[in-house]
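TEACHING EXERCISE
Course module: macromolecular assemblies
Task: Read the component lines below, then compare them to the predicted structure of the full complex.
Student: A.B.
Group: 4
Components provided:
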Amino acid sequence: MWDYSDKVKEHFFQPRNAGPLEDANGIGDVGSISCGDALRLMLKVEPETDIILDAHFQTFGCGSAIASSSALTEMIKGKTLDEALKVSNQDIADYLDGLPPEKMHCSVMGREALQAAVANYRGEVWSDDHEEGALVCKCFAVDAVMIEDTIRANNLSSVQDVTNYTKAGGGCSSCHEGIEEILAKVLSERGESFNPGAQPKEEAKPAGMTNLQRIKKIEAVLESVRPQLKRDGGDIELLDVDGKTIYVSMTGACAGCQMEALTLQGIQQKLMEELKEFIKIVPTKAGALTRASCHP
Amino acid sequence: MTGIYFDNNATTRVDPVVVEAMLPYFTEQFGNPSSMHSFGNKVGLAIKKARMQVQELLGAEHDSEIIFTSCGTESDSTALLSALKAQPERKEIITTTVEHPAILTLCAYLEKEGYKVHYLKVDGKGRLDLDEYKKLLSDQTAVVSVMWANNETGTFFPVVEMAELANAAGAMFHTDAVQAVGKVPLNLKDTKIDMLSVSGHKLHAPKGIGVLYLKRGTRFRPLLRGGHQERGRRAGTENTTSIVGLGRAAEMAMEAMAFENTEVARLRDKLEAGILAKVPSSFVTGDPSNRLPNTSNIAFEYIEGEAILLLLNKFGIAASSGSACTSGSLEPSHVMRAMGIPYTAAHGTVRFSLSRYSTEAEVDRVIAVVPEIIAQLRKLSPYWDGDKPKAEPDKAFAPTYA
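Instructor-supplied answer key:
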């Protein structure tokens, strides 16, 4: 059974704005019937103001697809089209208090339906530019197509390269066999064979960031999550930065909390987005390290 | 335990009688059966008894043909890898497109290792073409592995006949019978089946115990080497408690065999007819005239299975689905696809699998609940309109691939 949040369940059991929408003037049909998830988003837009007066959906799909559709309609109602288009798939997932990694594509589908519906309203043709593959890295929700394309585009040849470029394999490491298989396939296309001992490419330093700037950025991210931790009676402290490893100490109620691994995973995600590179976050207590990095 | 458990092909409840038989072997009878002292000796005798109970259920000629393993998957891997090791000159395997992943994933791996694997196709009802099979058998065939009953649809394959054909071609024959054992009367001594896999938890014994039946005289190479347990064919200290439990469960399965094939089958038929009568655009998958007595797999068109299961679960009803989402994969069940079931139906397949503990009241309750759930989800479906599918559903909703 999937580990769905209460919010996901609520939106699945009592979906908002389900069913056809009479006099809709923007319709987006996206999804893949072979994968088992497809969505029709219907918008009623006020032409003078571009405000979305109403939004409905019909979904062929699983619990989280229905919940994501329902959440999306709630989020965009009352917004102008331009405001609505700023809703990202992560916003949809956040609105639902998170989705399992295997289900993040449901929120992506929601965002794409929105783009398609807006394009339809504006008389444009929307075309999708990405293809989705089988999920390889469950820690960071990276699929096979993404890995394959990245290897090809950047001429990668080691698992470490793939982790540096896509984050895939940077967590629990159980997908390394799968990544090696993809590497072997792409390498054989270029007439090379996979060598497990290959040196990773020189890690590109994020442009123009000095160590000091980097540490300041890290501090800023920690600062931004601090109020939330304090609300729960805990805190986080930056101890050291050693290359890609960031050492922290969880204090107060956070120390040993069952949610610690999840919290750290969230912070790691934020840090990687800010620093635009793969990093590892290590709590200093023995034992906690494996939990943090292995949480699927 | 409240709730209605109709997912017995996934796993079954351990019968309390089985638990009772097992309990002494955790505490008083904790000895290692290999030990010389009386602590071990009594446990050794208990294993001997369990082996005979399993022998009886399988209709095996000798009790030494029973090898206890840790699960069905271990039995499957042991069988196939042994057949390949023992006959290095033969490089081909014949299996089917609808096997359990315990066989299919192993075969995909063996292909990478250089073996040639032939996958027999099935028709719309999940049946094999024996002529295709006969043509593939050759002196290159090391082993044929064909399941006795399909876990998703319950459809039987003619394994006894197929084993004869394999034998005539000099190939070994293995069958993954984890769904059939305990529900189908077996008499292995009169067949040419060389190897057969059993899983304890499918027949009210605990998880973590399995059996590989190995016909006397079949050339064998162990998967696990080490101590002399199981006559050196499966090293590792015996899972004594679970072996005792499986023995008792095998005896109970023998006693319940007729009941499974009459009463359980009647309940299954009632459930199926009751649902089909009330739900439009639904159909049974597999071969209803030739299948396990406890299994019904129904496709509910234009909706998705995980959503059905979540709503069933809300009503305390447990079943399973062939949708992609329930497994986290990108494709619906390979069994449904192999039968050519369209995507809009394959994603909406639900398997109900009963047991001898299922009751009439439970069946009535499921018949009452399912139509509501299906109607509720169809209201959300872009393919559905009122009380029927839209005209030309594929044209009414044709999403951009995303």
